Structures are given as structure tokens and as C-alpha cells.
Amino acid sequence: MGSASLSILTPSKPTPVSSTEEDPPNPSTALLSFNTDSSTPPHKPTTTILFISLLVITCIALSASIAFAFLFFSSSSSSSSSPLSLQIESTARPLTKLDRPVVLLISSDGFRFGYQFKTPTPNIGRLIANGTEAETGLIPVFPTLTFPNHYSIVTGLYPAYHGIINNYFADPITGETFTMQSHEPKWWLGEPLWETVANHGLKASTYFWPGSEVKKGSWNCPLNYCRYYNSSVPFEERVDTVLHYFDLPSSEIPVFMTLYFEDPDHQGHQVGPDDPEITEAVARIDRMIGRLIQGLEKRGVFEDVTIIMVGDHGMVGTCDKKLIFLEDLAPWIEIPESWVQSYSPLLSIRPPAGFSHSDVVAKMMEGLRSGKVDSGKNLRVFLKEELPDRLHYVASDRISPIIGLVEEGFKVEQKKSKRKECGGAHGYDNAFFSMRTIFIGHGPQFARGHKVPSFENVQIYNLVTSILDIQGAPNNGTVSFPKSVLLSSP
Ligand SMILES: [Zn+2]
């Protein structure tokens, strides 16, 4: 995991390839070749050789300075060609058509940070160019799974506190099982944004979001404002429904709206992050953003609406050579299937009463470190209390007492099978750069062409309540965070 922390410290920022700078003279190569030449055995010095040498040195120096000048001017001219980046804004822009701020929160599931460079994305690019972007992506919460992350985004809480600690889990006290179809309020702790908004007597709407169908507090998932999840609804229909909210009388327009797309997560699982199918899925999401922007512009509200576009997590390629089998640990300890709550990438184990948890961890680690278990060194098992603090994955009975962290791209399975599959996965340590997703904020309170350092998605709740100017519920986000990202009130 050391490499993961390193990648956090020195993220490699993908930069689009410039088509205008074809093979500029490379000063470092020129200097290197000069040094190489000078290391050859010296000839008898004559004035002619001296003269030629001086000429060569002068030429090299000149070409080097030309190269530097070329690079300098081309980079400075490219930044001056986008006047917006030079424009310094300090105060929020006033609303021109809407009576009050409206936040539209969009999630593109599994939109790994960097996908925006796979293909031209003019519409997402427009939001970025005229808005504020997390420069090296949005950091998901651990585990980097869909339900825990979507619910962290709207509650500002880590999964241990909002209760959705995995996509599937069992409550150890009641024995009941949570699935992605469980809408009973007892599972969903914390106060999601639609509930906060409703508590203030304001209208919210949800076009799909994990937890949005759960009736809690003042939120009763009202007809026409709250859509029950149905993955077959075309993306265009979702966008158009959101647009129609802006045709309502001013007092009826929801001040907070969600919009959800399953892509490109859907494709990412099947083919991994580096397949042309992902490129096409990203292009399609961009077209949906274009449809949305056009619709808002037609209604004259595009500049008034705050659009926050995020993903829930990234994606990494997995292949069957990167597997760890629990059955291989049998010489040290038998881990029956019935102990395992989830395998991969989050290994979660709850042994029955009577077993010492620390004994199970010690025996598993002994096996994994023995060198006799295939890929054993790529799985580390912890008592949940001993997980790194930065994962915030301990303070809930729903979290199993034993948690395994696997290296990027690895998977844990019970036993060897003939199943051969290469695809993609997420759910890993949120320190992996591959798990990062996007954050773009566009609207009156976001500076144009602004980049902010990466941050965790639990900060978004306070950001939204701050934009809406309503009091939010206590959460794990930093109270001062919105001030560091948003423009001050006029
Ligand atoms: Zn997801």
C-alpha cells in the first residue's frame, strides 16, 4: 500500500497532447549529445578544431535557447488565449432568472478520474472551463463501492456513521440482510440532502440516488418528484424530466435535484477501464450533459443553476491471475464460506461466537506471509479496530470484526475455479488513485476556470447546504470547507 500513498502525494496529472508542438528541439538531448562528444578522446588541438567546436557550442546554445523560448511562449500564449483563467472573481454572481439558488447534483457512476481525457468531452469540458474542478479528482470514501459512496455524498457521513457500510451486509443483531433494494428507514442513518431540504419546507427532487426512495423525516418520496429506481429508463428521459422541473412556477421548482446515470460503471465492470466501450460510454455521458446544458440555456437558467457533477468511485482492471483463494489458508486456518460477509475487493469476515478474532487474524496473516499462498502478500487482514484511521471504517456494529484489504486489481475468492474473466472492479482502498472520480461545480458560487485540491466526498453535503443557504445536519465534513471552495456572497 506504500505505492498507493505515494501516488496520492505525487498524482500524475494527465495532460492532453498538444497537436501544435510537434517535435520541438529538445535542449536536454542537445546538451547530452554535446557531453557525449566531449568525452571522446581529445584530438590534437588546432585552431580549425577549436573554431568548429566553438561554432558547434554556439549552435547548440542557440538552438537550446530557441527551444526554451518556444516552450515558454507557446505555454504562455496558450494560457492567455483563455481569458477566463486570468479573470479573478471573488464574489458570487447574482441570479438573473431564478428566485433562489438551485443545486442539481449529477452522478455518473464509476466515472474514474481521467476518463474525461479519453475522448473529446466538449460539454463536460465546458462545465470544467467555466467552473471549479477538483484538480486531481474527488476522493471516494472507503469502501469505494456504489451505495456507501452515493450515500456519503448526500449525507456528509462516512459509511460507519450513515449505516450503508457495503452494498450488501447482514445486521449482526437482527440477522436481517441489507440489499440494494432495501428501502426501510432503519438501514439508512443520517440526514440526506433531500430530507434536509424538505425539513426546511423546500422542495427537492430525485431522479434516482441510493437512499432517495427511503421515507424519512419530512421526506416522503413524493409522487412526480421522487423516481423509483428503474435502470431501463433512457438517459434522455431522465434529463428531460429534470429540465421540465424548470418549467414549473417558481415556487414549485425543487431547490435540490439529483440525476443519476449508471454509466460508465456498467461497462467498466465488464471490460475494465481501458476498453473502447468505456470511451463510448463517456462520450454518451457527455452528450447527456450537452442535452442538459442546451435545455437549461433554452429556459434561460443555465447560468443560474448550480450543477455539481460527480462520480461515486473509479475503476481498475482485474484479471484472473490476480486472485487470492481463502481455501489456500486451510493449513493455517479454515475460513468457511458462512463466515464471509463479502469477498472482494472488500473482504469482510465475521466468525461465529467462540472464535477469537485476533487469533483468526494472526493465523490468516501467518498463512498469507508464508510465501506458500498464491498472491498472499497482496492481502492484509486486520481487526477492524486496527485498520488505518484514514479509512474511518470501524464505528458500526454492521462492519464485520475482520476486514481484509487487497492490493489494487486483486480479488479474493473462496476457492479455485475455472472461471476466467478479465474486467473491472472498485471497492478498494480509497488511497488508490484508480478509485478517484470527478468533481465539477458550475454555477454562480463557483469560480470560473478554478482548480481546487482533491477532497473527500463527505465535504459535498456542507457545500450544497452552503450554496442553498440552509442549516445542515451534523456530519463528517469540515465546517469551513465550503468557504475554501465557493465564492463569497455578493
Ligand atoms: Zn458505482
Automatic annotation (TrEMBL):
Biased composition range(s): Polar residues: 1-19, 28-42
PANTHER family: BIS(5'-ADENOSYL)-TRIPHOSPHATASE (PTHR10151:SF120), ECTONUCLEOTIDE PYROPHOSPHATASE/PHOSPHODIESTERASE (PTHR10151)
Region (Disordered): 1-42
InterPro entries attached to this UniProt entry: Alkaline_phosphatase_core_sf (IPR017850), Phosphodiest/P_Trfase (IPR002591)
Keywords: Membrane, Transmembrane, Transmembrane helix
Tagged with keyword Zinc: no
Any single Gene Ontology cellular-component annotation: vacuole
Naturally occurring in which organism (per UniProt): Tetracentron sinense
Keyword Transmembrane helix among record annotations: yes
GO molecular function, one term: hydrolase activity
Protein name: Uncharacterized protein
Source species taxonomy: Eukaryota, Viridiplantae, Streptophyta, Embryophyta, Tracheophyta
Regions that span the bilayer: 49-73
